[in-house]
Amino acid sequence: MIEVSNLLKVFEGRGQTVRAVDDVSTAIAKGEVVVIIGPSGSGKSTFLRCLNGLEEFDDGQVIIDGIDLAGSKTNLNAVRREVGMVFQHFNLFPHKTVLENVTLAQRVVRKRKAGEANQKAMALLTKVGIAEKANEYPSRLSGGQQQRVAIARALAMDPKVMLFDEPTSALDPEMVGEVLDVMKQLAREGMTMAVVTHEMGFAREVAQRVLFMDAGRILEDAPPAQFFTAPREPRAQAFLKQVL
Amino acid sequence: MALKHRPATWPWYLLLAAILIGLVAGLWVATKRVHYEWRWERVPQYFAYRAEVPQESPIAGRVSAIQTDGALRRVVVTPADGGAPVVLPVETVQVAVGDTLDREDSVGDNHEWRIGPLTQGLWVTIWISFVSGLVGLLIGLITGLCRISDNPVLRGLAVIYIELIRGTPLLVQIFIFYFFIGTVLNLDRIVAGIGALALFVGAYIAEIIRAGIQSIAKGQTEAARSLGMSAFQTMSYIVLPQAFKRVLPPLAGQFISLIKDSSLVSVIAITDLTKSGREIITSTFATFEIWFTVALLYLVVTSLLSQLLFWLERRFARSD
Questions:
Q1: Measured between alpha carbons, how far is A26 from B177 in angstroms, rounded to an integer?
Q2: What pTM does this model have?
Q3: End-to-end CA gap in chain A
Q4: Beta strands in B22-126 (DSSP E)
Q5: Given B229, B241, B320, which is nearest A105 (Cβ)?
Q6: What confidence tens digit (pLDDT) does each residue in B62-100 have?
Q7: Is the ipTM of this complex over 0.90?
Q8: pLDDT digits over A60-94, tens only?
Q9: Residue of A nearest to B224 (CA)
Q10: Which chain B residues contact residue A154 at CB under 8 A?
């Protein structure tokens, strides 16, 4: 589903260059749930944002469902509608109601009729347990509720892959569970997922693979059972000691 | 004892009233000193007045009778060739029974309401401001978008336009627009006036819109793009609606300025409110009354506009 080879992303500024993603190669199979962890500044979010072209990478290749992101004939918008993304700060559209947030892209991108889009939206809002807030504005919702709406908004496009960029990091602790539950359900249904998170419990329970990143590189790529019990890399060992 | 001690506010209101009364009194004394004779009773006729309209006879003939119908008189004109008589209602009669009339001879006068020059000028000011505001908004939107474009040509043109307009006086721009561009393109003075105002306000609106767009969090654009929306769709569905709501207050200020600045088009002989006022003064010398009235009319229009935009702002605040 996703193939990444020799990905390079460099940030330049104030006289110094940072290789945020440094020669990363990996692949995510259809139906696989991959959790990316690592200390802050390790480049995991940047890596994730390269996967739907939100971050323009400097070198290497990203192939999504057979389409080369950097290809000269590639329509990035067409690729992005197949790749859902959930952000740390939800990024709901504040001037639209919850329902409109979920229907807008269906209508203008997928060109669905209003009735069809509404039906789809209500089904998804029911699925994430927030249908009764359909006509509220996002500002009336709690963080956990907003993030569940954001997940419904991404799912409304019928994506083949879902990217989660620290979806619970901005939430109050009591709201983390409700968002993780939705994500676990998605994983059970066979969605291909790449998740950047600090929720080790989620990684252990749901992930098929854990990627450990530091300084722009993938240092370890292992099943969670192996990674959490016997990490090979000293930096992974140090990281786990701090967070567990 | 309350935690917060609130001093009484009524002495301050008393002071405010005293200052205002003092100002009015000062004005009164000042006009006394220059021996100005106030003639406010002359002002209303410049809003609307009753005009005398002569009633002409549509045919040649003889006045055969004059009937009285309340305040109205009916003059009956019988044509010489014995055709059907014509009845003409008038308020004041200028003919007598037996008079012979040619076609288009006047038989008397009627009165009807006409709008005066102040009303006409006010109307011209309102519609010139409205049209140039609308065109300026469009120019400002396009220029604002060019200003933040990645294309150096669009960005360069936008910056030059904005700097040229903001760095020169509106009065000079109006003269250049009218005498140079107007002559080259053979423009009507109204078109030249509206064009100059629209270009002027457009430059300021462009900067307001640019700031508004840049104030919208980057995450909004990212969310929209991640859903597959194009740059244009993202701009029109996500960024601009939010930006517009945010820039409404400065935009309102700009439109209110535009109404006041539109008084400058009177220099190219467009009869707006200011020019009308000046014309009335040359014939009446009621200088103080007319200028105070003109100022009041501007104040009424700008206050109404700011109320309207305030209402709009509150409506948009629903989603906050």
A1: 64
A2: 0.82
A3: 31
A4: 48-56, 61-69, 72-79, 86-90, 92-93, 100-101, 106-115
A5: B229
A6: 888 888 888 788 888 888 777 788 888 888 888 888 888
A7: yes
A8: 999 999 899 988 888 999 999 999 999 999 999 99
A9: A105
A10: 226-227
